[in-house]
Amino acid sequence: MKEIISIIILPVLAGLLLFLIPEKLRTIKGLAAVLISIITGYLTVVIYSSGNQVMHPDESAAVSGFILFGLKSIIDAARYLVFNSDNLSKLIILFISLFTVLILLYSIIYIKEGTVKNYYSYFLITLGCSYGAVLSDNLLLFFFFWGILGITLYKLISGHDEESSATAKKTLILIGASDSIMIIGIGIIWKITGTLSIGSISVPTTNALSVVAFLALLTGSFTKAGAFPFHTWVPDYAKSAPASSSAYMPASLDKLLGIYFLARITNKMFILNGWLTILLLSIGVISIITAVMMALVQHNYKRLLGYHAVSQVGYMILGFGLGSTIGVAAGLFHMVNNAIYKSGLFLSSGCIEYRTGKENIDDLGGLSKVMPVTFVATLIFAMSISGIPPFNGFASKWMIYQGIIDFGSGSGIASKLWVLWLGMAVLGSALTMASFIKLIGGIFLSRRRPEFENIKEVPVLMWLPLAVLSLFCVVFGVFATNLVVPKLFMPVSGSFRFLGFWNSSFVSLLVLISIILGIILYLAFNLKKFRTEDSFIGGERIQDQTSYSTTEFYKTIGEFRFFSGFYKKAEEKWFDIYDLSKRFVLWLSHQLSEAHSGMLPGYVLWVVAGLIIMLLIMI
């Protein structure tokens, strides 16, 4: 299939060519990037509409080129160029194209000169390598594209100050370290199976070597997706990177790629034992609860969204940890839903930052009237992520709840703990709603500050992607059981029947009827006529001048005795694997420096000890 080669090579070549265009012509570069994304988007639709195919090296245009130019020595390496367009990979590339087009349209206005150098070049290279990673059927080829994405993730954050530079470095180190661990897993798989074909690998986790291989690949998946305990780069990246970069990488593409790889290793490449199932389910609920608890106390709205990007990964892990057909479908459905509303939320945050220049909820308020499109879109995204019907977040979470209940009928320790998995998932959804009440109330519904009286809605190229993503939240929720899940996700997971009596369209109709009845009652009983009075404090009027900060109410959570120690340790980065590793390396370096005493007997002792260790390893 020439379309597969085209969607990989075309964006990468275009991105490289855009390096030659000066930065002052960034609008032209942006329009060129949009054009390339539309072309590749059309090609992904062609691939999606075609049958499943595996493209071998002899069908590759690259191999033909090697033969033409006499580079036969490269032919051996070309045998790794195997691509597979199955139902899962076709689903992922379809949504990669959607998010790319929308975010590039947004970026034409949002990205200013000096924000990120060569932004559109790295954007297109990211697009091509994302296609390559998803369509690769060889682990080494997959890892090649996967590694490049770590570099482009680093380059899509601006290093204009010390904080953003530190965040970029942290992101690169964490992603790079996880990639190094993945190499170990790939090597073990080669040793066990003798093949690197993703579609041909099926390893039972019945011995220590296979378990190590699974955990090594799981580390790469979790770091890319932003799951506990490899998640700490996500909130920092969300705070320091441009909103469009956060919407493209941590919110959409990294989630799609990380969870795509999780789907591969949990449903095909490895046959999980009971303890690994418990591990996945435990990490799922830990990611949900810990991240949403951190989101509750955040004042920076971009950092708050970053923690929710981590929390939502937990639901996807729960779905795949269940291992059932409905669990896998729910995990994939929630992966797509999360990418939709989470990228929308990051784009909304960019709109707010674009007009106000503020990042803290405390500094904002009352923007609903001056930025109505952004407000409505953000409200839809907030209700979607909180699991409120009839939006898409409710549909996928409800499927996860159904999968957990069905999982409870099985045998084994993990099945017996189904109430725990279900309770934590529901609690996480409730806490998510609580944190978004703070975000919506603090930014849009509280008293508007005088300096924001004259601001206007963002340009059409910025709010149009929000409107499209909002529409997806509604459509994917209303038609979940009748159209979306059967047509998009059952071809990947397999067919199943929904448990109990639940129909998304019928539920949506009931919600609509309730709203209409509420409006009728409101008008019939003339409830809009009510009296308001100012507070009486000796005759002075202060109501117009005072307001209550929305974030003040949430301070009690951090001050609560049970949670205060947890939050204090979090502020000290006790749960940050990057910071802990850095402390250990500095401590070890200090210990080694202390060993350099300048005394010859000490150095002789070190040499002898090193030789003994080497001999033990060789034996």
Strand order of the largest sheet: 1-2
| Rounded Rg | 26 Å
Q: Which outline best applies? A: globular
Strand content: under 5%
Tally of separate helices: 25
Specify the helix fraction band: over 70%
Give the low-pLDDT segments.
Answer: 61-71
Order of helices and strands: HHEHHEHHHHEHHHEHHHHHHHHHHHHHH
Calculate the mean pLDDT score and round it. 85
Structural class: mainly alpha
Question: What characterizes the major β-sheet?
Answer: 2 strands, antiparallel
Distance between the termini: 51 Å
The total count of strands amounts to: 4
In short:
The chain has 619 residues and is mainly alpha-helical. It is 72% helix and 2% strand.
Which structural traits does this protein have?
619 residues; two-stranded parallel ribbon; mainly alpha; 25 helices; single chain; globular
Fold blueprint:
Layout: H1 2-18, H2 26-49, E1 53-55, H3 61-68, H4 75-78, E2 83-85, H5 87-110, H6 119-135, H7 139-155, H8 162-193, E3 203-204, H9 208-225, H10 233-240, H11 243-269, E4 270-271, H12 274-296, H13 301-322, H14 325-356, H15 372-385, H16 392-407, H17 413-416, H18 418-445, H19 460-478, H20 480-493, H21 504-524, H22 550-559, H23 561-571, H24 577-595, H25 600-618
Parallel strand pairs: 3-4
Antiparallel strand pairs: 1-2
Helix pairs in contact: 1-2, 1-6, 2-5, 2-6, 5-6, 5-11, 5-14, 5-19, 6-7, 7-8, 8-9, 8-10, 9-11, 10-13, 11-13, 11-14, 12-13, 12-18, 13-14, 13-16, 13-18, 14-15, 14-16, 14-19, 14-20, 15-18, 15-19, 16-18, 16-19
